[in-house]
């Protein structure tokens, strides 16, 4: 019996639902090829801005317990021009993450990838630690609508919109994204958080505030995916604190059609991707579930 | 419960050693760092300033470790200016380590600048072995050399052949340490291993010389590093992440690293020529 873990999301056929989240190992074609080989269903690139960004000075990441991190990398990325050269020979399932501070930037970035063999795009509306980029854009519903429309005008490829817990209600932002033509929602991004060292009496991260990821945010992610899937028609990619195949199952039962992993790779290394995929197969086998799609949203029944 | 190496420990600087006017060794107590394998590195936090990846130096005191820093940029200068009693944060040790075993009978160490740190730690670990040690050290000029006293001290007990190259000829051979290596290998045909750490273009020469002479080698590769735990990609060289797959790579692995000695990723992640 072959237990099927392939999925179709927003018209994309993925060999499995395990996607490497944006910001994680996201800037080198050589590394992408290694991730495909290890078994990633798809990869999301680092968020690409119009111009290169160096990001913040270190420390850019701090571990807050043994399963969670706070990071403020500051959207370091090579910029659209360099990154389009980097991935010009890409053949794997890659989504390019987009970030910007003005509506006009997004169509320019998307055009750079017009002739590339990529799956589609993910719009980062929820980076919690860079001013005027990410979350501050995501909080402006009119701007969200306009940016999505401007991207959809430039490409026929699917666009996922990554939402987080900002000032605007996540359901409201997602609904606006859906009405503007988004093909799917990725939820959730990291959450604004902070670590202060009590001995030196100062914040650890250079940017002081960063985004919390890892086990600590999983219950929030599950809740958001559950609520989003109840009120949206477009598919959802669940993200936040996935450490084991059972976390994947939980997100899918909440309504996610696919999931993304990030912090796990920091804790267990690149090979953890393959282990999650294997774990999923064994889970289906043990439960005699022929097709992973059967469990999507099952918790809503 | 054992301490998680990913969690930062804030430690007090207990001693410092001025190596040269611009190089300092800082000693502190941290049991995880004290058992670092030769070649492993720490992420060192200088509060309110920066966090830097630094190779672990040796300390003779139990549960203690050290780091050696050259003042250069913003972060390294802030760390250099720290003194006894000041606090710094430590996470790690991270990365792999030099491979070594007693079957290696004739070993060369070749390094320059702060690249000497992991080599000295390695020598410290294996100096009791019944092997022949040759240490080739390079610097721009005599005043920039350090750790020579330490090696002379060890050489009183165990024969260590120390060769020095300075670019201006103020001490030892005038030229580069790789010139010494080339000449040395033309005479000595029984070398089992070359360990190297220092500027990449120097290590590239060591690699080329090792290949020509069919000698095994291991190099500690440096790249711009942020996370230290294999998720940010800042330190990638081809399909390898220096922080988790390295920093030590042998000649077989280096052969596949077409970026070695050619290009590196800048802070934005753009592939840039050396």
Topology overview:
The complex is a heterodimer of chains A (301) and B (274).
Chain A: E1 7-9, E2 12-14, E3 18-20, H1 29-38, E4 42-48, E5 61-65, E6 68-71, H2 79-86, E7 94-98, H3 103-112, E8 120-124, H4 135-138, H5 141-154, E9 159-163, H6 170-180, E10 184-187, E11 191-194, E12 196-197, E13 202-203, E14 209-214, H7 218-231, E15 236-239, H8 245-254, E16 258-261, H9 263-268, H10 272-286
Parallel strand pairs in A: 3-4, 3-16, 4-7, 7-8, 8-9, 9-10, 10-15, 15-16
Antiparallel strand pairs in A: 1-2, 5-6, 6-14, 11-14, 12-13
Chain B: E1 9-20, E2 23-29, H1 31-34, E3 41-46, E4 50-57, E5 64-70, H2 74-80, E6 87-94, E7 106-112, H3 116-126, E8 132-139, H4 148-155, E9 160-166, E10 173-174, H5 177-187, E11 193-197, H6 200-212, E12 217-220, E13 236-237, E14 240-241, H7 242-245, E15 248-250, H8 251-256, E16 263-265, E17 271-273
Q: Characteristics of this structure?
A:
heterodimer; A: 301 residues; alpha/beta; TIM Barrel; eight-stranded parallel beta barrel; four-stranded antiparallel beta sheet; 16 strands; B: 274 residues; Elongation Factor Tu (Ef-tu), domain 3; Rossmann fold; 3 domains; seven-stranded mixed beta sheet; six-stranded antiparallel beta barrel; globular
Summarize the model shown.
Chain A has helices at 29-38, 79-86, 103-112, 135-138, 141-154, 170-180, 218-231, 245-254, 263-268, 272-286, and strands at residues 7-9, 12-14, 18-20, 42-48, 61-65, 68-71, 94-98, 120-124, 159-163, 184-187, 191-194, 196-197, 202-203, 209-214, 236-239, 258-261. Chain A is an alpha/beta fold and 301 residues long.
The largest β sheet of chain B comes out as:
7 strands, mixed
CATH class of chain A: Alpha Beta
Largest interface: pair, residues per side: A-B, 45 and 37 residues
What is the string of SSEs of chain B from the N terminus onward? EEHEEEHEEHEHEEHEHEEEHEHEE
**Largest sheet strand order of chain B:** 10-9-8-7-11-12-15
- Largest beta-sheet characterization of chain A: 8 strands, parallel, barrel
Cα(first) to Cα(last) distance of chain B is 45 Å
The average pLDDT score of chain B comes to 96
Beta strand count of chain B: 17
Overall SS class of chain A? alpha/beta
* End-to-end Cα distance of chain A: 27 Å
Q: In what range is the share of β-strand residues of chain B?
A: 25-35%
Number of helices of chain A: 10
SSE order of chain A, one letter for each helix or strand: EEEHEEEHEHEHHEHEEEEEHEHEHH
């Amino acid at each position: 019996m072959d237990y099927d873990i392939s999925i179709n999301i927003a018209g994309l056929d993925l060999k499995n639902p395990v996607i490497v989240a944006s910001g994680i190992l996201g800037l080198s074609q050589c590394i992408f090829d290694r991730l495909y080989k290890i078994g990633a269903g798809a990869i999301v690139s680092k968020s690409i801005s119009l111009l290169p960004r160096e990001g913040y000075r270190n420390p850019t990441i701090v571990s807050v317990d043994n399963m969670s991190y706070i990071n403020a990398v500051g959207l370091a990325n090579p910029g659209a021009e360099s990154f389009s050269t980097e991935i010009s020979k890409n053949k794997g399932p890659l989504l390019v993450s987009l970030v910007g501070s003005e509506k006009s930037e997004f169509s320019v970035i998307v055009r750079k990838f017009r002739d590339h063999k990529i799956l589609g795009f993910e719009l980062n509306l929820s980076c919690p630690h860079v001013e005027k980029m990410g979350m501050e854009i995501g909080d402006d519903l009119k701007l969200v609508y306009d940016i999505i429309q401007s991207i959809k005008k430039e490409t026929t490829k699917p666009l996922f919109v990554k939402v987080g817990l900002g000032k605007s209600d996540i359901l409201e932002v997602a609904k606006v994204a859906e009405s503007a033509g988004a093909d799917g929602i990725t939820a959730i991004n990291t959450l604004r958080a902070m670590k202060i060292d009590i001995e030196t009496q100062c914040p650890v991260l250079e940017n002081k505030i960063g985004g919390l990821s890892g086990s600590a945010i999983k219950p929030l992610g599950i809740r958001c995916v559950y609520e989003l899937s109840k009120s949206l028609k477009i598919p959802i990619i669940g993200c936040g604190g996935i450490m084991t195949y059972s976390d994947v199952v939980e997100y899918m039962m909440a309504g996610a059609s696919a999931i993304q992993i990030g912090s796990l790779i920091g804790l267990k290394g690149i090979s953890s991707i393959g282990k999650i995929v294997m774990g999923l197969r064994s889970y289906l086998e043990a439960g005699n579930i022929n097709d992973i799609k059967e469990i999507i949203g099952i918790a809503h029944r | 419960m054992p301490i998680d190496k990913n969690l930062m420990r804030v430690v007090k600087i207990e001693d410092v050693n001025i190596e040269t006017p611009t190089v300092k060794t800082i000693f502190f107590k941290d049991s995880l760092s004290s058992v670092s394998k030769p070649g492993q590195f720490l992420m060192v936090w200088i509060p309110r300033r920066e966090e830097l990846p630094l190779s672990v130096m040796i300390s003779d005191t139990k549960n203690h470790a050290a780091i050696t820093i050259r003042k250069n940029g913003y972060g390294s200068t802030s760390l250099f200016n720290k003194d006894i009693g000041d606090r710094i944060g430590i996470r790690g040790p991270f990365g792999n380590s030099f491979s070594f075993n007693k079957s290696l009978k004739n070993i060369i160490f070749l390094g320059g600048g702060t690249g000497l740190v992991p080599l000295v730690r390695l020598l410290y670990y294996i100096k009791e072995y019944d092997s022949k040690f040759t240490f080739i050290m390079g610097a721009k000029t005599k005043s920039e050399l350090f750790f020579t006293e330490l090696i002379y001290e060890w050489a009183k007990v165990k024969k260590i052949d120390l060769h020095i190259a300075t670019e201006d000829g103020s001490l030892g051979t005038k030229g580069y340490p790789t010139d010494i290596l080339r000449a040395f290998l033309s005479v000595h045909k029984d070398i089992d291993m070359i360990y190297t750490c220092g500027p990449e273009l120097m290590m590239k020469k060591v690699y080329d010389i090792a290949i020509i002479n069919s000698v095994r080698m291991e190099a500690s590769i440096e790249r711009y590093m942020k996370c230290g735990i294999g998720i940010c990609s800042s330190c990638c060289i081809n399909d390898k992440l220096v922080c988790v797959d390295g920093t030590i790579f042998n000649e077989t692995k280096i052969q596949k690293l077409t970026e070695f000695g050619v290009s590196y990723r800048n802070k934005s992640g753009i592939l840039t020529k050396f």
